[in-house]
Amino acid sequence: MKEKEEHNLGKGILLDLYNHGFIETIYNTNNEKYQQGWILKSGLWSPWYFNLRPLGASPKLAHDIASAMNQMIISKVPNLTQIVGIEMAGVPLASAIGTLNESHCNFIHYSYTRALPGGKPRTPEEAKSKLEKMKIDFGYGGKELVEGRFKDGDNICIVDDMVTNFGSKLIAKYIIEYEMERRGIKNVNLNHVAVVLDREQGADKEAKKQGMNLHSLIKFKTHGLSWLKDIMLPQEYKLISDYQENPQSFNDESTRKAIEEAKIFRGK
Predict the structure, then answer these.
(1) How confident is the model at residue 5 (pLDDT cuts 50, 70, 90)?
(2) Tell me, what's the pLDDT at 264?
(3) By the 8 A CB rule, do 36 and 66 touch?
(4) How far is CA 71 from the centre of its chain?
């Protein structure tokens, strides 16, 4: 897929995502619980949140995202043999991408990860330690951690809805590696990750550090936010722009209180 085509597809999809409520901010959310913001898996506070879990409520948009992702993955991942969706949001996404067959799309073998027993690990290091302990305690027994069929030499692309700091993608990589070793499958390539939206908060740098390639349909800081400028409230756009420049500076409670007071004063 050419860069201009990818750019146009991403822009149209991002506008639809915002208009259909899949991109929430403290200004547009209807959930009172999140009108003061979200705490991300990374531990950072955020004034906006991207959530594709209820995408089934907008089947046309789901189809458009799957089509764009299918094209991007095929064009970016040489010799692709399979995609693996990360539970939970990545599971229906991988299914939609894999089973799409149009003039410009291809069927792709797909599978998905399951949650680790005992709850989600907070960090890749914790996941790695947990998996090592499972090897010792169970000797690769117990339930499968990845649902799907694989073969020696598979070239896999991990799929998810979004990425912040790459931690959950690295956890998925460790889970897949564990499962391949458990099944005796060799020479599997796990060098690619594809997401709908990259929050651009360090994931690309971490992916490269891990020897992996991160592909995103929408780069939120570089392109996405500017695409939303005309449909956001001025104060909404400014807050998220400032946040994207330095997310850590918003982790102070007094700063967030000042944001809430300003929001109430200006109104929604």
Answers:
(1) confident
(2) 61
(3) no
(4) 17
- For position 113, what pLDDT does the model report? 97
Q: What is the pTM of this model?
A: 0.93
Q: Which tens digit of pLDDT belongs to each residue from 118-163? A: 888 989 999 999 999 998 877 766 679 999 999 999 999 999 999 9
CA-CA-CA-CA torsion sign (204, 83, 21, 264)? negative
User: For 36-67, b where at least 16 C-beta lie within 10 A, e where not — what string?
Assistant: ebbeeebebbbbbbbebeebeebeebbebbbb
Label residue 210 exposed, middle or buried (CB < 10 Å: 0-12, 13-18, 19+).
middle
**Amino acid identity for residue 239 in this structure:** L
How many angstroms separate the CA atoms of 150 and 83, rounded?
11
Distances (CA, A) of 50 to 1, 59, 120, 188, 195: 25, 17, 20, 31, 12
- Measured on CA atoms in the order 142, 147, 151, 155, is the torsion positive or negative? negative
**Which structural domains are found in the chain, ordered by start?**
3-266 (3.40.50.2020)
